[in-house]
Amino acid sequence: MPFVDIVAKDDYASLWYWTNTYNNSVGIFDPARPVLVLLHPAGLDSSWMQSQMEDPRLYNNFNIIMFDTRVTGNSRCRYSGRHDLWVTAADLAQAFYHLRLPPAHIFAPDLYGLAAMRFAVL
């Protein structure tokens, strides 16, 4: 499974992601299509977004990537009391950096909508 590792001297997270490409690689995204990031609601994981990932209106027109946050799904992290929506936004920024993702549309329901806005600020 694909992971993005975010390492700092006092923090570690390995974020799981899934794409709509046949081999789950962002390297073969179609450059003519915009990128769509799907974030799941708080307390759930990205499997909750699977029906959106398989919707042909999205699947055929966007490069889609879904991330599990550091405390949900298949992602792993070193737990600390400093986790908040700014950390989630920074994780997303690090994932964009390491995967070399272009600017994207972000669908983020629930609390992660606030994290998406904070990511835009970063």
Explain the overall architecture:
- This protein is α/β, with parallel strands linked by helices and 122 residues long.
- It has 4 helices and 6 strands; from the N terminus they run E-E-E-H-H-E-E-H-E-H.
- The protein has helices at residues 50-53, 56-59, 85-99, 112-121, and strands spanning 3-8, 11-19, 35-39, 63-67, 76-77, 104-107.
- Strands 1, 2, 3, 4, 5 and 6 form a 6-stranded mixed beta sheet that branches.
- Strand 1 and strand 2 form a beta hairpin.
- Helix 3 packs across helix 4 (112-121).
- The longest helix has 15 residues, at 85-99.
- The model has no long low-confidence stretch (mean pLDDT 90).
Give a short overview.
This protein has 122 residues and is of the alpha/beta class. The protein is 27% helix and 25% strand. Strands 1, 2, 3, 4, 5 and 6 form a 6-stranded mixed β-sheet that branches.
